[in-house]
Design brief:
alpha/beta, 2,3-Dihydroxybiphenyl 1,2-Dioxygenase, domain 1, four-stranded mixed β-sheet
């Protein structure tokens, strides 16, 4: 079976996107631009105690997408411990709401946001009492 082992977030302003994701989710980063030959920052999303899929932020080949336009590429969803606290961090860091907090009844809270580069991503808080 194949599994996702790496992701890339494209950004017109990679440093702004890097600042957004590291401040909201606490991910760590390392500048890999020298290896890639383009602006490229590796991201570590997990730890020894918590698994994660590592990825990168890289320079976009063109302008950022338009809010409300079609999604280009995959949408990443990040599991969080506290939906409301994470949503507040997203908004404080310059993100905007794409789809508000919604109960997935008996399973979780789910919502979608735009990062500073207008990419759509989700946050997901497991909660068997969600309704």
């Amino acid at each position: 079976m194949s599994r996702v082992v790496h992701f890339e977030i494209h950004a017109e302003h990679p440093q702004r996107a890097l600042d957004f994701y590291t401040s909201v989710f606490g991910w760590t980063s390392e500048d890999w631009s020298g290896f890639a030959g383009v602006p490229y920052w590796g991201l570590v999303t997990g730890s020894d105690d918590t698994p994660g899929i590592n990825g990168a932020i890289m320079g976009r080949q063109g302008p950022n997408p338009i809010v409300g336009g079609p999604v280009a590429g995959a949408v990443l969803t990040v599991q969080v411990e506290d939906f409301d606290a994470t949503a507040a961090k997203i908004l404080a860091a310059g993100g905007t709401v794409a789809m508000p907090k919604t109960a997935m009844e008996g399973m979780a809270w789910q919502g979608y946001y735009h990062d500073t580069e207008k990419n759509v991503f989700g946050i997901h808080q497991p909660d068997p009492d969600a309704k």
